[in-house]
């Protein structure tokens, strides 16, 4: 099977690396700048500026360009070249209905991975279009980047807020914990390792034991002990509400951006509803 990655930038490079790690060797990746092409070639892909060649010579196509580059990419590929191709779009905001009109006769999916794909731990949500046939192949390829969740398309904005922006929110929490460790006397490196360990270990414990977070919290909290003092501080500072509002704000922005992007793509490609 040959795979095309259209736009070998940040996430496109991660796709190439993940597929290579998974044992796929027939990969062609595109970009415009020499630097992009050189990087794609160094990762093991055939590198080219020719999107039409990449699409027409492949079975599966990952679209990993920025949203405003989508119309230009679509125009750079002959309409006939999309026929029979399986296209997985990572492009935020571009809706399945629009993608299916733009790439008539392609089998189109829309997916939202996150940056944790860099270490094979993406949480990728994927939605199928109306012409989808080969979900198993798409599932297999996306699993090279991490966990895969099949969802209805209308979940993707919420997913973008929670799992797409999530690594940034978690990074902020880790940074705060590190500063807290330093505040109470730990060397920075040690505090950093402890924060990462606690996050990783707690995630794993919750996942593997099936324990509810409330139960884990109560198990750690002894009467009049240290944890309850920390918890009352978190409660009075509104930590939970702040995190909920962060995800909700990101969700609303994702809806706004999605509407703008989709309208722009339709306008530039002359697609009507
Ligand atoms: N980064 C993430 O964590 C992440 C996560 C989920 C989804 N996404 C989605 O993935 C997409 C890409 O994001 P990114 O952060 O990877 O952006 P990026 O680093 O800017 O990569 C985009 C790449 O597309 C290439 N490109 C632009 N126009 C092209 C064209 N006409 N033909 C061929 N290649 C072209 C660019 O190549 P040149 O530089 O050579 O022009 C660039 O390398 C976005 O739509 C974003 O919503 C990203």
UniProtKB/TrEMBL annotation:
List of residues binding NADPH: 51
Domain called Pyrroline-5-carboxylate reductase dimerisation: residue spans: 153-256
Reactions catalysed: L-proline + NADP(+) = (S)-1-pyrroline-5-carboxylate + NADPH + 2 H(+); L-proline + NAD(+) = (S)-1-pyrroline-5-carboxylate + NADH + 2 H(+)
PROSITE patterns: P5CR
All residue ranges annotated as the Pyrroline-5-carboxylate reductase catalytic N-terminal domain in the record: 2-93
SUPFAM superfamilies: 6-phosphogluconate dehydrogenase C-terminal domain-like (SSF48179), NAD(P)-binding Rossmann-fold domains (SSF51735)
Coiled coil (UniProt feature): none
Keyword Iron carried by entry: no
Pathway participation: Amino-acid biosynthesis; L-proline biosynthesis; L-proline from L-glutamate 5-semialdehyde: step 1/1
Family statement: Belongs to the pyrroline-5-carboxylate reductase family.
PANTHER family noted in UniProt: PYRROLINE-5-CARBOXYLATE REDUCTASE, PYRROLINE-5-CARBOXYLATE REDUCTASE 3
Protein known as: Pyrroline-5-carboxylate reductase
Phylogenetic placement of the source organism: Archaea, Thermoproteota, Thermoprotei, Desulfurococcales, Desulfurococcaceae
């Amino acid at each position: 099977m040959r795979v095309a990655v259209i736009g070998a930038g940040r996430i496109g490079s991660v796709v190439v690396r993940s597929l290579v790690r998974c044992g796929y060797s027939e990969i062609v990746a595109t970009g415009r700048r020499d630097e992009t092409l050189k990087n794609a070639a160094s990762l093991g892909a055939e590198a080219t500026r020719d999107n039409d060649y990449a699409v027409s010579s492949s079975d599966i196509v990952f679209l990993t360009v920025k949203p405003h580059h989508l119309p230009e990419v679509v125009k750079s590929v002959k309409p006939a070249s999309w026929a029979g191709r399986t296209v997985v779009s990572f492009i935020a905001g571009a809706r399945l209905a629009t993608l299916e009109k733009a790439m008539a006769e392609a089998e189109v999916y829309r997916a939202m991975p996150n940056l944790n794909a860099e270490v094979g731990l993406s949480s990728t949500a994927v939605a199928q279009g109306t012409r989808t046939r080969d979900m198993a192949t798409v599932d297999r390829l996306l699993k090279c980047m991490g966990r895969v969740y099949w969802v209805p398309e209308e979940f993707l904005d919420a997913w973008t807020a929670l799992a797409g922006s999530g690594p940034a929110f978690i990074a902020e929490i880790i940074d705060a914990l590190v500063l807290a460790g330093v505040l109470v006397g730990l060397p920075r490196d040690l505090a950093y390792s402890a924060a990462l360990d606690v996050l990783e270990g707690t995630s794993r414990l919750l996942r593997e034991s099936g324990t509810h977070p409330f139960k884990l919290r109560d198990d750690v909290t002894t009467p009049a002990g240290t944890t309850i003092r920390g918890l009352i501080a978190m409660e009075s500072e509104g930590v939970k509400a702040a995190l909920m509002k962060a995800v909700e704000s990101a969700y609303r922005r994702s809806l706004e951006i999605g509407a703008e992007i989709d309208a722009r793509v339709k306008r530039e490609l002359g697609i009507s509803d």
